[in-house]
């Protein structure tokens, strides 16, 4: 069983069947799944996106300054983090939201040593605000947190996608899912596991990634128990 994990949640996972916003019942369901792994004694850090509220690239396409649009997205991740914290604490899971953007009224500042202390005290941590800098994705934030907090693995919880495929399964019925991949295969086949900056951090710090479908009940627990689900991406050095 993994001892410390970084769970990467897309913001879109929080909108349920809607097209926009935060769906409370869906968030409560995600919190229940997180509680299952928390009760195993696993230290859980969560990085959440903001795709259900705002995307920096969308703002850029509308003519906004890219940095300004990205900062708006960072604020969206804080909103999602607070919603997830509320859902977790409503089912008796002690939780702290930490953010790299100064917003002391609602969240703690992210400090590595403080985060480690929270883990020791048995608290679930939600890392919001992305990296705190524009032009970087929440995938990169997840990779950074996994590296500096010595996480065993990054759990990439996908919204309705079982793992990594050789082509988009939503467009191609003959798409084939991989059960295990190496770093070289991901690079050579240009597979969309995460953005290149995040992938580089994982490669340099030897961090494995498990891509799985979060919409199947029990998958999060199976992932932590290292049961065969989804696609395991092993960032092995080239021999």
Question: What this model shows, in words?
Answer:
This protein has helices at 24-38, 56-61, 66-89, 112-120, 138-148, 183-189, 196-204, 219-224, and strands at 4-9, 43-48, 95-99, 108-109, 124-128, 153-158, 164-165, 177-178, 180-182, 208-213, 231-234. The protein has 239 residues and is an alpha/beta fold. The protein has one domain (4-234): Acetylglutamate kinase-like (Carbamate kinase, 3-Layer(aba) Sandwich), CATH 3.40.1160. The strands form two sheets. Strands 4-3-5-2-1-6-10-11-9 form a nine-stranded mixed sheet, sandwiched between helices. It has a two-stranded antiparallel ribbon with strand order 7-8. Helix 1 packs across helix 3 (66-89). The longest helix is centred in the first third of the chain and has 24 residues, at 66-89. The protein is globular, with a radius of gyration of 17 Å. The two termini are 28 Å apart. 42% of the residues are buried.
Number of discrete domains: 1
Number of helices: 8
| H-E order | EHEHHEEHEHEEEEHHEHE
Structural class: alpha/beta
Order of strands side by side in the largest beta sheet?
A: 4-3-5-2-1-6-10-11-9
The CATH C-level name is Alpha Beta
Low-confidence stretches: none
User: Over all CA atoms, what is the radius of gyration?
Assistant: 17 Å
Distance between the termini: 28 Å
């Amino acid at each position: 069983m993994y001892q410390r994990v970084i769970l990467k949640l897309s913001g879109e996972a929080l909108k349920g069947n809607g097209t926009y916003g935060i769906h409370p019942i869906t968030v409560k369901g995600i919190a229940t799944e997180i509680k299952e792994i928390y009760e195993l004694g696993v230290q859980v850090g969560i990085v959440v996106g903001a795709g259900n509220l705002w995307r920096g690239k969308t703002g850029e396409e509308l003519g906004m300054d890219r940095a300004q649009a990205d900062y708006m997205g960072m604020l969206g991740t804080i909103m999602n983090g607070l919603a997830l914290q509320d859902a977790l604490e409503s089912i008796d899971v002690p939780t702290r939201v930490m953010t790299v953007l100064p917003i002391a009224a609602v969240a703690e500042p992210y400090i590595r040593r403080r985060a480690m202390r929270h883990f020791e005290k048995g608290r679930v941590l939600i890392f919001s605000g992305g990296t705190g800098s524009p032009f970087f994705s929440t995938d990169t934030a997840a990779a950074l947190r996994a590296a500096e907090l010595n996480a065993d693995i990054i759990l990439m919880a996908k919204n309705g996608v079982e793992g990594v495929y050789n082509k988009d399964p939503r467009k191609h019925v003959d798409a084939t899912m991989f059960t295990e991949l190496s770093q070289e295969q991901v690079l050579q086949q240009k597979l969309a596991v995460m953005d290149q900056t995040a992938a580089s951090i994982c490669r340099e710090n030897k961090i494995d990634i498990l891509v799985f479908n979060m919409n199947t009940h029990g998958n999060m627990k199976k992932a932590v128990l290292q049961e065969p689900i989804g696609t395991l991406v092993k960032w092995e050095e080239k021999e």
